[in-house]
Amino acid sequence: MKITMLGTGAALPDPDRAQSAILLTLNNGRHYLFDCGEGATRQMVRANVDPASVGFVFLTHLHHDHICDYPYFVISSWMLNKTGAPLLLGPKGTRHFVNHLFEHGAYHTDFQARSAYPVRQQNLEAMRPEVLEVSPGVVFEDNDVKISVDWVEHLPREVCECFGVRVEAEGKVIAFSGDTAPCEAMVNLARDADLLIHECTFPESFIAHRAKTGVGTYSHTSPTALGEIATRANVKGLVATHFGHFDSTSPVLKRAAAKHLPVDLMGPHLMDEIVADIRKHYGGPLRLAHDLMRIDL
């Protein structure tokens, strides 16, 4: 199987990273997309993947940086002659999100205009996602994959459920954290995994700053805690991702982040700190994700 890190950034617009999106491709060519943040569809094309061939999407939670490319993905797939309804799995609220997007929502005019063309009328199902709101446990299983999820700790559950994911396919196990503070659920989902893809949004100093100032959520996993999770779960490989712009040199990002990040500390040098802190507890194979990074298992 092949894993393509389509987007490895966080909530702000980043000139170097798209937002959260991970594409898993089996040897038989079937695709499974986990999260669909800004840039996901464009990155598929850059990775030589036709968006119309991606029939499964799982949203870990409903923060904008994990879902905002979804309407573009669906409309683009329609225009690329996708057949059949796309399948979308996600937490409670996913159906509400989708119901306000397409022919009865924000893109009603676009749908009305394009569906007047005979070629678009042939695949209207492509604009009508099949939505399944999931609960902890096995949420999808067929002859190729088994996908299990559990709640992780990022947002208050009454605001939005947040899920971590375990995928079993082709004799391999891949776990993906979504966004989360350290939690037992993620250790269990990643148990003995061949690969753990886990958020590592901020260095230790940035998490402390956000907790102290009370600006934004700080319910993320620090590098030190990530190393502990990977070791406790006995994973065979670790990919750190969802970097919160702390490595950026963009003046625009620095101005935008001034109220919630210690911008005087920002820069690529912090990646060395990330690795050093992960290595305090984890000595196995480690990658720091970048957009379009390919991993073969």
Automatic annotation (TrEMBL):
Its EC number is 3.1.26.11. Keywords: Endonuclease, Hydrolase, Metal-binding, Nuclease, tRNA processing, Zinc. Signal peptide: none annotated. Binds 2 Zn(2+) ions. Zn(2+) 2 binds at D65, H66, D179, H242. The active site is at D65. One of its GO terms (molecular function) is zinc ion binding. It comes from the Bacteria. Its cofactor is Zn(2+). It catalyses: Endonucleolytic cleavage of RNA, removing extra 3' nucleotides from tRNA precursor, generating 3' termini of tRNAs. A 3'-hydroxy group is left at the tRNA terminus and a 5'-phosphoryl group is left at the trailer molecule. CDD domains: arylsulfatase_AtsA-like_MBL-fold. Pfam families: Anti-Pycsar_Apyc1. Zn(2+) 1 binds at H61, H63, H108, D179. Zinc phosphodiesterase, which displays some tRNA 3'-processing endonuclease activity. Probably involved in tRNA maturation, by removing a 3'-trailer from precursor tRNA. Homodimer. Belongs to the RNase Z family. This is Ribonuclease Z. It comes from Pandoraea thiooxydans. The lineage of its organism: Bacteria, Pseudomonadati, Pseudomonadota, Betaproteobacteria, Burkholderiales. The gene is rnz.
